[in-house]
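FIELD: query
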Amino acid sequence: MRNKFDEQLAKLNNMLTQMGAMIEKAITLAIQALVQQDEAMAKQAIAFDHDIDQMEKEIEAYCLRLLLQQQPVARDLRVISAALKMITDMERIGDQAADIAEITLFLVGATYIKTLEHILQMATATAKMVTDSIDAYVKMDLDIALQVIADDDVVDNLFDTVKFDLIELIQADKTNGEQAIDLIMITKYFERIGDHASNIAEWVVFSITGKHAKATE
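FIELD: result
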């Protein structure tokens, strides 16, 4: 009986890994679309959102079946409960990758008013946080989860840097305003992706320790 349940938990891990790969791809497409001002890539990132939403529903249904059909012990219950919480954040990450891509469609063909250096640093950092947070769950690795939570400060600092740079550009020339607002919104979505990755990592900490990460600080 236990062997079957372990197999079912392994399947849950595989489903989460698959959903994680989908949101990583959506983020990558959104980043590439922004850099290359590529309309086709932006539309691909937007299209991924539907698949991610569908995957969330499948994992939710699977978790609920496990809870109803099995009698999970305390740690197993934490693992399944954490998965249910994680997929909500994962689905929202997919939404935000799509939001970035939708704004990018308006920027196709435009000359950027500033280099994308710090925005790309944010994008790279948040994509890594997403990958690491899911990896931490699959491996049940507390150290990786805690590092993801710590990395959120790096993303927040980069967001502040980009925001202040863009505000200065608006103050210097009001014609920069429309694009500056678009770029601020993009960086805000990346900042939110970082927050959701941190949330996922906090649920990983809960699944391992029985305590929410904030309570361990």
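FIELD: remark
The chain has one domain: 2-216.
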